[in-house]
Amino acid sequence: MSEIPGMSRIAPVLFKAACPDCRARFELSAGALRLVIGASARTTFYSFTCPECGNAVRKSAGERIVELLTGGGVRTLRLHSTV
Ligand SMILES: [Zn+2]
Q1: Residue 32 in contact with residue 67, Cβ under 8 Å?
Q2: Does some domain include residue 71?
Q3: Could you name the domain of life of the organism this protein comes from (predicted)?
């Protein structure tokens, strides 16, 4: 198998996640996650649907997680509060 320079970066990124409800552990592709960046750390979170129980899971995201998710191609929604 020959490797095309630069192509390895296209490999899908998987994020390890766990469901707080059914405690299942699984890996999610970037497309299964959504990141919401709010005005403060309290309103910055990522969410996904548990593939085991179907629950919508929402978890707070710190700076490192935000970097990791945006770098991995997760859809990001930026909320700008003008209060
Ligand atoms: Zn679950």
Answers
A1: no
A2: yes
A3: Bacteria
Which protein residues have their CB within 5 A of the ion that is ligand 1? Answer: 19, 21-22, 24, 50, 52-53, 55
Q: Which domain holds residue 51?
A: 13-78
Which amino acid makes up residue 71?
G
Give this prediction's pTM: 0.79
CA of 19 to the centre of ligand 1 (A): 5
Q: Is residue 32 part of a domain?
A: yes
Q: What is the pLDDT of residues 15-42, one digit of tens each?
A: 999 999 999 999 999 999 999 999 988 8
- The answer to whether the beta carbons of residues 72 and 61 sit under 8 Å apart is no
Is residue 74 included in any domain, yes or no? yes
